[in-house]
Design goal:
Elements lengths: L9 E3 L2 E3 L3 E11 L5 E10 L2 E9 L8 H11 L7 E7 L4 H5 L23 H12 L6 E6 L5 E9 L4 H10 L3 E4 L7 H7 L4 E7 L6 H17 L14 E3 L1 E6 L4 E5 L6 E2 L4 E6 L11 E5 L4 E7 L3 E2 L4 E7 L9
Parallel strand pairs: 5-6, 5-7, 7-10, 8-9, 9-11
Antiparallel strand pairs: 1-2, 3-4, 4-6, 8-10, 8-17, 12-19, 13-15, 13-18, 14-17, 15-16, 17-19
Helix pairs in contact: 1-6, 4-6
Length: 332
């Protein structure tokens, strides 16, 4: 494999792409039980000038679809004849899950808990190993695109190691409304890539199995801003206003089971004790309202996610709040 812009080709999945050219590469993973081969497809843009090698990936969780659209939207804007470095754009990593509209692989494993994978392990481990070998090992930077899990929605946000200078620079360039300093989950792509010295952002926005135009637009503009900050493109979108950087998040949980009526929204600023929802504990009350429970914000912050299913059990996470400052935010 050659570096971008040194006069040589860039090799991926057995295909070689000359400087200033693009290619669609299919990397075989495994056949279905009917022997139809499933492949991970990558849109490869090999620039004419030296520069970073960035991957962007969607649908590691097969039901998280907004990232698929972000990758395609970014790819449509890239001209390899004007590009410095190389862009590797993978719309759907977990093609098996996307086919079945499922977060998981057919072996019921979460792919984002299986990195760096194994050549002889489970289907999930083999796919993770293949992605590390073919994509991450050939790149210098990465952006992994997600949505919230089923029955939740997220404000566009970045989760990253904000204590790492290179990663923080990428996060600030992305321009999301909020960036969380997030611990790396064992087995996640972000952890595996970071351990190889590849600064990686995890983007969250929208809801599983739903198209969210706001999340797609924010993700597309964010990726292009990062490419501009890395010197890969000359005409990135304008800088976004500086978003909140937080090391402290809280999931507000339902104090009882019932029917949830939210009284806040994504991106809302809340103060301590602000009313953010009401739980109707009995759908059929002899006296309507007699059994209601008010949910209040535990402290000041920004609403970055919430449940979308009003039917909740005690302990369910209902509202996600990022607080200014603090230390340590968790990762999905």
């Amino acid at each position: 494999m050659s570096r971008a812009g040194d006069g040589g080709s860039f090799t991926l999945g057995g295909a070689s792409v000359a400087p200033g050219a693009r290619a669609n590469v299919a990397i075989p993973v495994a056949p279905l039980y009917n022997q139809v081969m499933m492949s991970v497809r990558a849109h490869l843009f090999h620039g004419v000038r030296p520069g970073p090698r960035l991957w962007i990936s969607g649908a590691i969780h097969g039901d998280e679809l907004c990232g698929v659209v972000v990758v395609r939207a970014v790819a449509r804007r890239i001209d390899p004849r004007r590009l410095a470095g190389t862009l590797v754009a993978i719309p759907a990593v977990n093609v098996f899950g996307a086919l079945h509209q499922s977060r998981y692989l057919p072996d019921r494993r979460d792919l984002n808990r299986c990195f760096p994978g194994s050549r002889r392990g489970s289907l999930a481990a083999r796919l993770a190993h293949l992605f590390m070998k073919e994509i991450v090992a050939r790149c210098t930077h990465g952006i992994d695109l997600h949505t919230a899990a089923i029955h939740r929605t997220n404000l566009p946000q970045i989760r990253a190691n904000l204590d790492d200078v290179r990663t923080r620079r990428m996060a600030r360039a992305f321009g999301a409304p909020v960036s969380l300093h997030a611990d790396e989950r064992d087995g996640s792509l972000r952890q595996a890539a970071s351990r190889r010295g590849v600064p990686t952002l995890l983007y969250e926005g929208g809801e599983a199995l739903r198209h969210d135009a706001t999340a797609v637009d924010a993700g597309t503009l964010g990726v292009l801003r990062v490419m501009g900050a890395l010197g890969m493109i000359d005409d990135p979108p304008p800088k976004a206003p500086r978003g909140l950087e937080s090391y402290d998040i809280t999931w507000v949980r339902a104090p009882r089971s019932g029917y949830l009526v939210l009284e806040t929204a994504l991106g809302a600023r809340v103060r301590r004790h602000d009313r953010i929802g009401t739980l109707h504990m009995r759908i059929r009350d002899e006296e309507p309202g007699a059994s209601d429970a008010v949910i209040r914000a535990p402290g000041p912050g920004l609403v970055i996610g919430h449940a979308t299913n009003p039917l909740v059990h005690v302990g369910d996470a209902v509202v996600h709040i990022a607080h200014p400052g603090g230390r340590r935010a968790g990762e999905r």
